[in-house]
Sequence to fold (432 residues):
Amino acid sequence: MSSFPSPAPSRSPWRSLRYRSMRWWSVANFVSNAGTWMQLTVQNLLVLQITGSAAATGLSMSVQAAPALLISVFGGAAVDRWPRRLTAAVSQALLGAIAFVTALMVALDRLDVTSLMVLAAITGVVATVDGPACSLLGNDLVPAEDVPSAIGVGALVHQAGRLTGAALAGVTVGFLGTAAAYAANGLSFLFVASVIPFLRPAKGAVKHAATARPRDALSVREGLAFFARRPRLLALAGVTGVSAVFGRNYQLTLAVLVTGPLAGGAGSFGTVSTVLAAGGIVGAVLGARLRRPSVRVVGALAAAGGLLQVVAGLSPSLAVLLVMVLPMAVVESVSDTAGTAVLQTDPPAHMRGRVLGVWGSIGTVWSLGGPPALGLLMELAGARGALVVGGLVIAGAIGAGHVLHGRRPVEAVAVRGGDTEAPARAALGTAA
Fold:
């Protein structure tokens, strides 16, 4: 009896869209992202209009981000305990309700800075649950080998939604007013909430079950302990952290470089920003082709990005900078997609919410602390020096970490699964 070889697994970046539920989820995410970025754009303008203070605008953004620093770990624990589709649907509905309340207060001219800050803080609290719930829900819809594609498609949707939302913000405010932008965002959340009940996992998708027991449902100890004892996740945190602090903040470093040493203006920086966005889209497509992303891949890409950043910092002209910016953005986007895939597939299914919660707190530290640290470096070394020194630090730190890792023995980590324990290395499938 003759046998035929099985077809090679698809490497298409769009392979996750073969599944009907994933297609609907991508449409819903695009609508939601467009609405969110429309509201964020309008919110900054609204704070400026009410207070006339750029500092107050920055404060409103920090107030919305602060809950992620303090309670993301609890939000992730809640995602592990509660049914994922129900959790995502309820959190989306709550975010929609907050947007509608804000729209009503704007329409009635009852919104002041204090009210806006309170609403921003409540939004941040709900987002600590909504973020990991929606991220993992998309992965639950496709087989494990197609998760990188789902994450890459999600990155594309995010970029497209961001550009669309920012463009629609001005049009909406110009023709319908500020309240309409908030109301539109509320409708986008309700659209997502209405789609979620009809989503069905594809055959071979990893099934999520709420396994936490009532007495320890919101305990974060297991998530913290797992993260702290998992070398792979610690390495990913280190790579991402050093890249976030000494690189990545190109809207800051490149803005100073373009308008300073390269003697460009706002138009020139707009061109650089466009190239960065295009590179991000290309990188998301390439990242979606990965089948087994690993921390080594993330580290290699981050180090390459650091070296490209060094060359960009030495650019003698705007034309040379534009040539370097594109591969920088592509490498960064592929690295982000690979890192997200590792983060969302490395832990066992019943721990992923808590791990994402820990990651949310860590990421908030980087996002709040990175720009001031980079600003100080620019004060000391200038824009060129900050790019060059930062890139060398990224590449050097990752290279040193790789050498040290090769000298350490790897130990298995015990992972609790229900009432049993199993070695993590046997339970996890993502390559280091």
Notes: DSSP finds 14 helices and two strands in the chain.
